[in-house]
Amino acid sequence: MEYINLDNRLNFPATTRNRDSIAAVLSNYISSNGLLLEIASGSGEHGVFFQQIFPSIIWQTSDPELVHRKSINSWIKHEGLFSKMPEPLDLDVEMRPWPITKQIRSLIKGIVCINMIHISPWTCTQALFEESKSHLNQNNFLMLYGPFLRKQVQTSQSNLNFDQSLKLQNPLWGLRQLDEVNELALENGFRQDKVIAMPANNLSVIYLLD
Questions:
Q1: Model-level pTM greater than 0.90?
Q2: Which of 41, 96, 128, 209 is the most buried (most CB within 10 A)?
């Protein structure tokens, strides 16, 4: 469920529930400077929160949906971050090459993708890894957050129900097998660094570029 304010700010309740735990993971990977690129930033609530938590870096949001980019800009203005945070990029992972300027490319230290790959076709996950490797340097990170299926771990009933509901909305959506994501990562020159259990049966999965 989402709510909208008159100033274009969207409110996604899940954001406030998971942002602290995601920030705790990010704190182990964010460097003291540079830029983090967030893919599919949605409402922008994560972006402004992480910019405030990590003031030494630039948090670059992006989203293909105009209503989301308007929300992101409204959140940036509302939080008084317009002198620090750039406007969101109009970035669709499957529209390649991504609209990344040379200046942004020179600053990127990591890419963060929260709750996207299960609500998009598998081709979006493929594009995410294929493009990310073009914009990261060795040992830079790509972080995925969300629910996954794992062959050696019993899936919670809530995640099984969620998977079914997603597939009813769109047969190309659904929770991804972590092994398959890892294989895709390996094909694109990434190695899995850590899998971290998160609240509400989610995972943070960190990949480093070889």
A1: yes
A2: 41
Which residues have a Cβ under 8 Å from the Cβ of 106 and sit 6 or more positions away? none
- In CATH, the architecture of 3-209 is 3-Layer(aba) Sandwich (3.40)
Alpha helices per DSSP H over 108-207: 122-135, 157-169, 178-187
| 205-to-1, 51, 88, 110, 178 alpha-carbon distances in Å | 25, 21, 24, 13, 9
User: What are the sequence ranges of the domains in the chain?
Assistant: 3-209
Q: Are 39 and 128 in contact (CB under 8 A)?
A: yes
What are the tens digits of pLDDT across the range 36-70?
999 999 999 999 999 999 999 999 999 999 999 99
